[in-house]
Structures are given as structure tokens and as C-alpha cells.
Amino acid sequence: MSRKEISANSQTKNARRKTKSPRGASLSYRYRLLMFGCGLCLIAGFFFAARQHFSSIDFSIKNSRLRKLSEELESDKRRLLLTKEIALSPSEIKKAAQKIGFKAMTAGSAGIVRPAAAKPAKPRAEKPDAPKSKQSEAIKAAEAATEKVPAKKTREEKPAEAKIKRETSQPAK
Amino acid sequence: MQKRTVKISRNKDSTQTIFTRFMLIVAFFILWIGGIGVRLVHLQINQHEWLLSEAQDQRRNQVKSKQLRGTIYDRTERALAMSVNAKSLFADPSEIEDVETTARRVAAALKVKPNEIYKSLSDAKQSGKRFVFLARRLDEDAAQRINDALKDTDLKKFDEPRFAGLHWKEEQKRSYPYKTLAAQVVGFSNSEDVGSAGVEQSQEELLNGAVIRKWQDRDRLGRVYEEYAPEDEREPPKDIVLTISNSIQYKTEQALEEGVKSANAKSGIAIVLDPKTGEILAMANYPTFDPNKFNEAAPESLTNRAVQSMYSPGSVFKLVTYAAALQENMIQPNGLIDCSRGFIEVGGHRFNDPHATKTMSYTEALAVSSNYAAIKTALGLGRERFYNYALQFGFGKPTGIELPAEARGQIRPPENWYGDSLASMSIGYELNITALQAVSAYATIANGGVRIKPHIIKEIRYADGKVFPNREIEKTRVVGEETADKLKQMLRQVVLKGTAKRAQLNGYTSAGKTGTAWKYNAKLKKVDAGKYVSSFIGFAPAENPSLVIAVVMDEPRGGARDGGQVSAPVFRQIAEQVLPELNVAPDGSVEQETLTAQTDDVPSELEPAPEEAPAMSEPEKIAETASAKKNGKTALTEKSKEPKNEPKPANEEKIPLKRKTADVTAEKPKAAVKSKSPGEKSKQKT
Predict the structure, then answer these.
(1) Residue A89 to residue B177, Cβ atoms within 8 A
(2) How does pLDDT run across B431-459, given as a tens digit for each residue?
(3) CB-based contact A82 B177, cutoff 8 Å
(4) I need a labelling partner for B198 at 20 to 30 A (CA). Which of B64, B228, B280, B490 fits?
(5) Taking CB atoms and an 8 Å limit, are A170 and B603 in contact across chains?
(6) From CA B249, how far away is CA B280, in angstroms rounded?
(7) What interface predicted TM-score (ipTM) does this complex get?
(8) What is the DSSP string of A93-105?
(9) How far is B253 from B179, CA to CA, in rounded Å?
(10) Residues linked to residue B81 through DSSP beta bridges, in sequence order
(11) Rg over CA atoms, chain B
(12) Could you tell me which chain A residue has the CA closest to the CA of B171?
């Protein structure tokens, strides 16, 4: 190959290089832009993920606190229920009633209202009923009389006493 | 040209060098990355588990807690037993540097002596223990006070109390808001939350809460940011609704307490039962205890005597005798029986009867609680039939109520009976029953002859409120409806004209039977004439009973001792308060003047104290037989004078006097014991 031919070839190559270089420059620019975009996305993703992560932990902490609070409120509710039950117990109600001056009702102090269809009451003129409170007092007096018998007796006393009691306690026939 | 060639070769060398260097760097990086890769593989595959646990340990801790124990409600949804959260303070001595200062600070916060805390902490530190309880089951307010008192501002600790080495443990505290109310029925759970008595014990499996393990992830400041628990390994505890009504229970307990105190009795039992459903509305024991302080209670007061204690029922058991005879058409309520003899001798044992003074109807005989009539009736029935009826009424076996340690009662099979056993049993001796069995038997009559298994649990409820499928209630017909009606009428006369006049109610009709039995003295090996079990079991209204109430008094030591005087008034007090509460309309057939019955008007059930007379000698026996023959009758051969509907006595006289077995623990009347020969006595003692 002659010198001319060699120089012609090199010129052609240079010319090709010259024509190629602007195209390569544009590719590189796009490439860089892409790289930058991807990098930006990646960094944004990292930030986003980090933000999500920390906010998730933050929410979890808040959630945990709320759960604890809910449990405590549930416990408080049970404690209040317990207090309510204590206050509603009959012994407490009785104490409260006595404090404000109520007295326990007895069968003797209550008037019985019988249905109309029931057995008609006996005419009062024939056999007037004693006041109920007096009746209960009479029963109480009778009970008290029986209670007055000494609790402890000697064995020798028993048969005689039982005999007397038997004699007096025969039902009226 | 040569220069150019040299230049080209130099370029070639430098390129080669750069390439070689580049390749070296690449190789280095490959080796480096490869090494890292190998290490990563090693860490992530071979050491995965260990690393995982190490990482978890750094940020995660496990918290164990127990589900709250199920609640026990009464039938009106009032909580009789419930659990609440509580906190227990404990120390980890390994985390405590200055034990003395800690002990002083903790003692000041807990308001206790510092020496005790110091001793327990120093002992634990020396022995290497890492857990020492300092205070148990404190409520939220007390825990907060302690937190404030123990706050160490210099310490970086997230959890309270902010004091080195001290921690809180979540526990639960069982509370019984109604205190002594139904204490023996509800029972109590011990310090480990395990049911130890009553429903708490019998329903332990349902009430007990499972242990839940929770994992908590914490950040570097110790704040919990993640919490998770595995799926529940066990179902949550269930709530139990009892058939008990707190109001009825309270009234019953009040009446019983009053009755026991006025009779100066050792203890008392009262049961209120709905005969139509078998539901126990109240079950009271006196003396009682507060389950919140069960450690301070007397051991005998912890027992539910209504189901765990047995006693000889005495005349209350005549119900079985008469029910069997009526069912077998052997007697009629208006049939007559000659009781004028005043005693009956069976199997060598003379049974005295102070009420046997004339010829009377069976209704009248039951009303005055005639032993003679009951024994004659039982002899007519015979051993097998009597025993079978007793079993059918539910005696000799547990009722199956949902309460622990229920006694089955003692009633021996006929092959183990003595010559006089049938007679003794017909009047409620030589056998032991529980108060619940007795009330169940009377409920059978009140319910038209159908026995309904008594029960105390109304329903079992899941945590979400769903109700456990209902169990079938066992029903058994024991006697016919006609028999039950006849018996109701007979029992009504006991209240109107007999031994239970004090059981007459204001505005309601009532029926029932008294019982007064001598107690067996284990030391003396015979009945003790000074100690009684006095009872009354009745129902109201008499025609269509809504309630059956049993009242049993153990060893009344006041003036009055028999069931009609001691237990019947308690029955009246309970019934008069409970019937209006159940909206039972007054049947208004009671005349007010009968309520004023004085003590002398009520026939006493007490027999004379057993005589100390020895067993009859042979000449005496002959003399008595001769005198009986002269009068034309013997103790067991009075057929000529008996009315047609009176039962024919079985051949009890043929039964040998010799005891067949020696397993007797039931009470026997003292007179019966006295009449045995020395050899027989020794057998009975064994």
C-alpha cells in the first residue's frame, strides 16, 4: 500500500471518527441522565422506605401504648364492676337502708292482700284477729319462754322433764 | 520507522500492563466479593438460627400472662366471684448493687419493716436467685403509689418502677363481692388461682384461664413497638351462671343464722329448691366464712354441710315409709291403726312411742310422728320393698349435684341388716343421709312423684356470650301422682295439727315433716341422748308447691330441741319472704289464729331419754309374753284388732338377733344398743 493510500485511509477513519463522536456524545448524555434518574429513584426509594419504616415503628409504638391503655381501661371497667357488685350486695344495701332509717319488714308487719276468689275472711265480730304485729310478738314471747329453759341440764333431770313436757304437749283431739 | 515501531511496542506494553493491573484488581474484587459471599452463605445458612435468636434477644422479650378466670354469676346475673388484674412487685437481686439502700427505699414505699426486705433480698442475692416477690396482688392505685415512691430520675428505664432491679408482674386477684353469701357453694380459689372448694373447685377446668405468651419487640429505649401472641392454645375461660338467687340466698342465710343463734345450735343447714325444675335457689350453711379471707376461716366452716355432711334423719325419713306403703296400696290416709299399746318390740328391741296412745288414722299418726305406726307400716312392706323405695328416692347415692365431695349417704343393703334394722330405718335411724338428699326426696312428692335431679348450675357461657348446649335434666318417676297427692295431704296435716304447727305461713298453705334424731357419739360408741339433729323439710304452697325448704339444726342446745320448735320457724321465715319474691299468689287458706299456736299446743317429737335399763332377762321375757297372751295379743300379732287396710307385718320375729355384719356406722337409738347382749355390742363397736 502506497503512502497516499495509507493517508487516504487514515483520513477516512478520522472523518468517520468525527462523524461518530457527536453521536457517542449524545448517547453518553442520555445514559448519564438515565443513571441520574435511576439514582434519584433509588435514593427517593431509600428515603421513602426509611420514612415508612420509622413511621411504622412510630405507629407501632403508639399502637402498643393504645393497646396497653385499652387493657388498663378494661381492667378499670372490671374493677368498677366489682365495686358495683360490692355496693349492690344485700348486706351493703341493708347497711345503707339502716343508715337512712329504714327498718326490716317482717311477715307480721306486712298486710296480706288476698285475691277476691280466695276464702272469705271470717267476720271480725265473731273472732276478731289480733293485730299481726301483736301476733308475732306473742309468738316471739312464746319462743323466748322456751329459750329460757337452761341449756345444760343433768342427765337425771331429763326423763322427768321430758315426761312433763309430753304430758303438756299432747295435741288437743 | 524504527522509532514508530518502538513507540508502538511501548504502547503495546503499557496497554498490557494496564490490562494486567486491571485484571489483578478485578481478580482481587472477585476474591473479595467471593469471600464476602462465602461468609454470607456461612452466616445465613449455617449460623442462621443462632444469629436469629441473638438478634431477637436483643430487641424482643417474652411476657407471660394468664387469662382472667371465668366469672361465677347468680341467676340474676350478679357476679358472685370475679377476677380483676393485679400487680405483684418482684426484685431481680442480680440487678441490684446496693441491697441495703434498695431495701430501705422499697420498705418505705410498701410501708413495711426494712429488715424483712433486706433479709429476703440479701439471701436471694447470695444464693443466686433472680426472682423475689416483694408485694403481691396490689391494685392499680397502690401500684401507682409505689411507682411514684420508687422513681429514680437518673435511671434510663422505660418500664415502671424506674428503680434498678425492681419489676412488676401481671397477676390476677379473685374477689367475692358478696363476701359470706353462698360462700360454701361458690367456694374459693387459692393463691395459685386454682379452685379449692365449691363451684370454683368442681368447675376448675371451665373457669381456669390459659397462660398466654406474648412477644414484645422493643427499640433501643425499651419502648414496645411490636407485640404479638400466637393463636390461643386453649379456649378462653367460661363464665358460670348458678341457679342460686342472691336475694333468696341472703334471706335464707339471715333466717338460718337467726335460727341457729336462737336455738343455740352448733351449726345449721338450709336449702331452698324449686321442685318443678330441680334448681337450688339457696343453699346456706351457718357458721360461714368470707372467701376473700379464707385463710382466716375456721376449717369446719369451710365445709358445705348440705352435701358433705351426713346425719340420721329421724322422723323426716317416715316420708319414704308412708310413700312406699301408699304406692303399694297397703295403707290409706284415712285408714285406722291401733297405737294404744305405746311400744313395739322388733328383733329384741323395744321401740317406745309416747304418741301411740289410741287408735288413729295414718294421717294423724304421721302428724304426731308416731313411731309405732311407721314401724308397723314398714314391717308390712318388708325389707326389699322398703330398701328399693329408699333407693328410688335417691338415698344411698350421690345426687350428682355439681359440687365437690358430695357424700353418698349410708344405707346398707338388706342382707346386712340386723333384726331390728327395718324398724329403725322406717323411723330414720341406722342410716345416714345428706340434707340435699332429704330435700330432693320431699321435692319428689311436691312434684307429683317425679324426682328431678337437683342442680346448681343454670348455664355455662362462652366468653363471647354464647351459651353452652343445655344438659338434659334427669327425671325419674318414683311414686304415682295419686300417691304423691295423698302424701301431700298427710304432710299438710302435720303442719295444721301435728308437730309442725310453727311451719304455718302467713298467707300461704304449707306442708312438711319434722325430724328429731339422737346423734351418734363415736367416743361412747352409742347414741348420745343429749345431742340431737333437729330438722324440718316442707313445701309451700301445699297444693301446688313452688318451693321445698329443708332446715337442719345440729345440736340445738337451747330450751327447744325438736324440729318443730327449732327448724320449723326458720322454714316459715324463709318461705314467707321468698314466696312473694317469686310472685307466688297467696292461696289464703290459712286462718290467722292458727299462727298463734303456743308451745304447748305443738306436740313434741322428742322421745323420752333412752332408759338405762339392761336387756330383758329370760324370766322377764317369759312373764311379758304370758301377760301379752293373757291380753290376747303380742307385740307383732295384733291382727285381730287391726283395721283391714293396715299392712300385714312381715315375719321380722324370725330374723335372728345375731348381727350379720359389723360395718355399722349409722346412728342407733340408745335403747336399741342397750338391748344387745355383750357379744353383740362388741360387734357393733367394730
Answers:
(1) yes
(2) 999 999 999 999 999 999 999 999 999 99
(3) yes
(4) B64
(5) yes
(6) 10
(7) 0.74
(8) HHHHHHHTT----
(9) 12
(10) B72
(11) 39
(12) A75
